[in-house]
Amino acid sequence: MKDYRQQLLAAYEQYADALFRYCYVRLQDRELAKDAVQEAYTRTWRWLTDGNEPRNLRALLYRTAANISIDELRRGRTESLDALTEQGADIADPSATDPSVAARLAEALTLVNRLEPKYRDALLMRHVDDMPVKDIAIVLGESENAVSVRIHRAIAKLKELHDHA
């Protein structure tokens, strides 16, 4: 078995913030998102120490975080994204103070939240977390073509939602 300690520490430095944003948008709760990220790294560490070899550590972390988020959502302990944005939540840039920027972000997050999870997740991974389609495909267990189509459809749905808002 390889020593994955350094790899996991490097992955934490590289991906923890993006994983937090991913979980936060899905769970809509800062503390639950922090817990989900911590649990994703803990489960990944256990999986690695059991002798498993990851093909793509980033994809493994995202898939683990996605599964944890799904479990949490099934428990139904989240607030609506609308309520958070009304309170001034700004996931893209917490230090932003410009009210017009915050208003546009709130509108965008509201629209994104209205997408079906399969579209929202692919869109966020690609355009918020800047993941390549190949990695998104691994995380979602889909083909690269299916992910590309899903992202394209998510953008089209967002435009449609915006036009009807």
List the helices and strands and how they pair.
Blueprint: H1 5-27, H2 30-49, H3 57-75, H4 81-86, H5 99-113, H6 117-127, H7 133-140, H8 144-163
Helix pairs in contact: 1-2, 1-3, 2-3, 3-7, 6-8, 7-8
Number of helices: 8
In whole angstroms, the N-to-C terminal distance is 54 Å
- Give me the strand/helix succession: HHHHHHHH
Report mean pLDDT, rounded to a whole number.
81
Low-confidence stretches: 77-82
Residues in helix, %:
over 70%
Question: Brief description of this entry?
Answer:
By secondary structure, the chain is an all-alpha fold. Helix content is 74%, strand content 0%.
Overview of the molecule:
This protein has helices spanning 5-27, 30-49, 57-75, 81-86, 99-113, 117-127, 133-140, 144-163. With 165 residues, it is mostly helical. The longest helix has 23 residues, at 5-27. It is globular and about 55 Å long. The chain starts with a helix and ends with a helix.
